[in-house]
Fold this sequence. Notes:
By secondary structure, the chain is α/β, with parallel strands linked by helices.
Amino acid sequence: MKKIFFVALALALLVCVSAASADVVIAFSQIGQESDWRTANTDDLKSAIENHPGWKLVYDDGQQKQENQIKALRNFITQNVDYILFTGVVSTGWDEVLKEVNEAEIPLLLIDRIPDCADKIDYVAAFGGDFVEEGRRQVAWAGEYLKKIGKGDTDVNIVIMEGTTGASAQTGRTEGNLKALKEYPHLKLVGQQSGNFTRAEGQAVMESWLKSIDKIDVLIAQNDDMALGAIDAIKAAGKVPGKDIIILGCDSVKAAFDSIVAGEMNCTVECTPLYGKFVVPTIEALIRGEKFDKTVVHPEEGVFDMDGGIDLGTVKSIKAADVIATRQY
Ligand code: GYE
């Protein structure tokens, strides 16, 4: 009898101890590994969560496939994780699986590419780039820069290299690019194609444009990786990047800063991948029982270029060489 009592006591203690030390499990469905931005985003969120005492990360790489991400989300539900972080490769087709997340009552945090159905589902917090504004800033920079170098009234041929088709980062930046082009009628759009946010495809698209388009004066690439790939193609064609062709990227990754300082890329519009500093305090607050408004928070971002001082209305560009030492990604 005594023995049974002690066994029961030991078991009860064990249950109490493990309940007290149970980890908070945070699952993250990431898109893939297409760019430097994505790598920085993954590393930042992984280390922020893994280094937090009492938190455990369940990470899934969707490898650019929506069906993989849907499977991952359903696995998170089966595992009954405590929080889900989600960014979707494309913006549509998430309604059903995100409703399942809601029905399982797992708090959902949206980051980066916010799905179109965000208004129809529940989420506890959302942090993402202002993609339309980023696209506007790219074209405005090109237009204002051309004015500054005395080419404000000259017809200039421009190509737009888009990101992954259907990604909110692509649709938003394209919307911003095209709207802003109306403000600069001397910028003539002569090419518009997806480079899928990768360096290799950026290079291939530029190669084919250089063969098929007579004169390209400005390249707007919707991320830095594609701009860097295009720079390789421009050099291979015997042209001088940054001079013969003005080159703009987006994200502001380290490699873009290096390229600007080397005089090859002209400008990069910032889109921060560093969401750890938003996500960690938010989850801490949620654990304390706090609640947030259902809105998408856009981090404050800059524009970096060779010389600085270009006025874009909402921001003024900063000389990349002046701040390169302070960059974190
Ligand atoms: O600009 C690009 C990445 O969704 C903001 O995805 C992100 C974009 C970023 O592949 O480099």
